[in-house]
Amino acid sequence: MAVAAEEKYELITRRLQEVLGGDSIKAILAEGRTPKCYWGSAPTGRPHIGYFVPLTKIADFLRAGVEVTILLADVHAFLDNLKAPLELVAHRTKYYKHILIAVFTSLGIPTSKLRFVEGSSYQLTKEYNLDNYRLCAIVTEHDAKKAGAEVVKQVDSPLLSGLLYPGMQALDEQYLGCDFQFGGVDQRKIFTFAELYLPRLGYAKRAHLMNPMVPGLGGGKMSSSDPNSKIDFLDPPEVVRRKIKGAFCEEGNTAENGVLSFVKAVLIPISQLRLERIRGETGADSEEGQTATGDQRPFALDDAPEGTVFSVFRKVEHGGSLHYQVFEQLEQDFAEKKLHPKDLKTAVADCIVRLLEPIRKAFEESEEWKKVEQLAYPDPNAKPDKKKKKEKVYHPPPPGKGKNAKQQPPAPTAETDVTTVAASVPAGEEVAKPTVDETSQ
């Protein structure tokens, strides 16, 4: 049992940048209990390929027998300053669920083992809001602002909504019944905030696991709000190749290199996942890969040595193809300029196109997803529909009326002057003179 527990812990924590409270996970495993975790995402901008990092890691959790909850944090999306107005949140939540399911399926991760929860399903309850008020009564403005500094959009005059964000994320751990929360290292300040304040409400302190962040294509953090720093899950092959071609990848420079970092954080882990699956090493997840879509081969050429996780094709006259079993070999070759940026970019672009093909196909085959996408991310350059002018309905005028109606002379009476009547009669027509009988009434 002890060996099994150690192996599970190794699976749960491998390739992570940081683990807080790992001893509590070890204790749960040692007791033979099933750990529970949650990973959350606020449906704001379009998800990008940096999401491959945490989503691939979910496979390790399932292999270790962890119960995984995926939180679609719709209320958080609304609270995050200036990102998603309320009327778009519902559509974006649906869009995120579509794309997450497509990505999980393309990775061979069985979605039937995942629990999807929308934040609004419990964050609007009386109990949750009372706990939120209790938290507000003990948290300082300084602590709330500091906790959300890396996650909540920062503006000169911060809104109160952004200050509520970290506290609600902390409460989610209690209301989702998790033993640990999983997220990017950019969430660290919120995680330590939760560790400090949840016990003050009488709730358990949870563990926190953090994956590394993938640098953007131009350096810095890959962000949904910066189209030049990211590749979307639905980008077509020509766009992928153009963006990778323009990415910062200086020869010999391994620092802040988004292309090189993507190989380390995404491509090699996915290759390892697939190689392990081929060998039947899926642990507690016997369903892994059964419903996978797309090409499930590792990112290695057909003639690559056994155990290769990443290959770079090169013509024989240029030295022949390169094959790597660990990232460190690739990094060293790049640093020593044995691997040219152009060759690396071409190989990476080919791999990304392969990764995105089944996701794009799922999108193209789903009319529902297409409609949701248009509602969630309407074209900002689209001209609003012009209001149709009301069609004029012709109503004929009453007899004797209208501009073309022939004017009739007034009928003479005893008081009517003959000359007045004559003046109203068209020229050439004669006025009938009244007789004595007609005027002597």
TrEMBL record:
It catalyses: tRNA(Tyr) + L-tyrosine + ATP = L-tyrosyl-tRNA(Tyr) + AMP + diphosphate + H(+). Pfam families: tRNA-synt_1b. Its EC number is 6.1.1.1. One of its GO terms (molecular function) is tyrosine-tRNA ligase activity. GO terms for biological process: tyrosyl-tRNA aminoacylation. The keyword 4Fe-4S does not apply. It is found in: Cytoplasm; Nucleus. InterPro entries: aa-tRNA-synth_Ic, Rossmann-like_a/b/a_fold, Tyr-tRNA-ligase, Tyr-tRNA-ligase_arc/euk-type, Tyr-tRNA_synthase. GO terms for cellular component: cytoplasm; nucleus. Residues 430-441 have a biased composition (Basic and acidic residues). It is an enzyme of class 6 (ligase). Its main location: cytoplasm. Residues 280-301, 375-441 are annotated as: Disordered. Gene3D superfamilies: HUPs, Tyrosyl-Transfer RNA Synthetase. Keywords: Aminoacyl-tRNA synthetase, ATP-binding, Cytoplasm, Ligase, Nucleotide-binding, Nucleus, Protein biosynthesis. Belongs to the class-I aminoacyl-tRNA synthetase family. This is Tyrosine--tRNA ligase.
